[in-house]
Amino acid sequence: MPGESLKLNVKRICIEVLGLLFILSGLILSIWSVEIIGHEYVIDYTDCLDLSEKTKCKDVFSITSECNCFLNVNITQPMNRTVTAYYELESFDQNLYYYSRDNKQLSGELSTNVSESCEPFAYVTSDKGRKPIAPCGALADRMFNDTLILQKDNSYVPTVQTGLLSENDKALYRNPSANIQAAFKEYAKPINWKNNIWELDPSNPDNNGFKNEAFIAWMRTDLKRKPLWRIDDKPPYQDGLPEGVYVLRVTYAYPPSVYNGRRLFVISNRKRVVNYVVVGLTVVLISIGLIVLAGKMYFNRKKYGNYIQCKMRVP
């Protein structure tokens, strides 16, 4: 019957409108209930001067291989909780190299026949013969290697290079065996690396090989800012980073020929938190609104019949 069909359509529209209200309420709630607390300081060290303060490090890199420079970092407010340092290569597009990798190799399954996707960074030929590269591929070969250290009163701020990523972030990366130096004996390091894969974190043997967190962060092309280290909670930094003037010591080692854009150092203790007061009030208001809407629909049904008609009479 046409009338019955129209009644069903009206009822369906009411249900869809109610569902849309729930979705919009959820979106508004998710935006209002989350806030960012903490502070961050961004230092652009791209054009820092060498120790003579006459030449930019990026201009003398090809001559000296490395260049050291120092920049003041003024922390104007205490940074409590976990304080993490990041680097950002502002205009570097890692996605160009995303597929130049061997995921089977990165999961700990080493083979002398590496993936063709790693070419031309798959093998190294020398007087000693031909060796497969581990980790192979253009993405790993271009791993960032500037050194960024904070100093205060001529002492280094203590840092650790673990606890930067979640277990899910690290799940796909495994080492071939407990003795990784022996496991990689028949493999060459990437062409542009200065250290071997088992030497990425000299202070922590468990943070080496494919499980090194800085390496994993580099391989994650979705991270624009890459975590470098976090401040160790040793006195006087057990409560975070006190306010004051610090010195950023930069060892400029990443070749400008690979990346010649802006280089940023970020020190941050920012985190997202849920404002439960806002959540509670919003839930109460939504509940009241739905009760009022349900009441209106009930009285409309009493007025016009046994069908929900959204304030219109169906013939």
How would you describe the overall organization of this protein?
With 315 residues, the chain is an alpha+beta fold. The protein has 2 domains: 2-33 and 276-304; 37-274, no CATH class. Helix content is 29%, strand content 23%. It contains 8 helices and 15 strands. The protein has helices at residues 2-32, 57-64, 103-106, 138-141, 167-170, 180-183, 213-219, 276-304, and strands at residues 34-37, 40-44, 67-75, 79-80, 84-89, 123-126, 129-132, 147-152, 155-156, 159-160, 225-231, 240-241, 244-252, 263-268, 271-274. The strands form 5 sheets. A 5-stranded antiparallel sheet has the order 2-14-5-11-10. Strands 3-13-8-9 form a 4-stranded antiparallel sheet. The protein starts with a helix and ends in an 11-residue tail after the last helix. The relative contact order is 0.23. Keywords: Membrane, Transmembrane, Transmembrane helix.
Would you spell out the secondary-structure blueprint of this structure?
Blueprint: H1 2-32, E1 34-37, E2 40-44, H2 57-64, E3 67-75, E4 79-80, E5 84-89, H3 103-106, E6 123-126, E7 129-132, H4 138-141, E8 147-152, E9 155-156, E10 159-160, H5 167-170, H6 180-183, H7 213-219, E11 225-231, E12 240-241, E13 244-252, E14 263-268, E15 271-274, H8 276-304
Antiparallel strand pairs: 1-15, 2-14, 3-13, 4-12, 5-11, 5-14, 6-7, 8-9, 8-13, 10-11
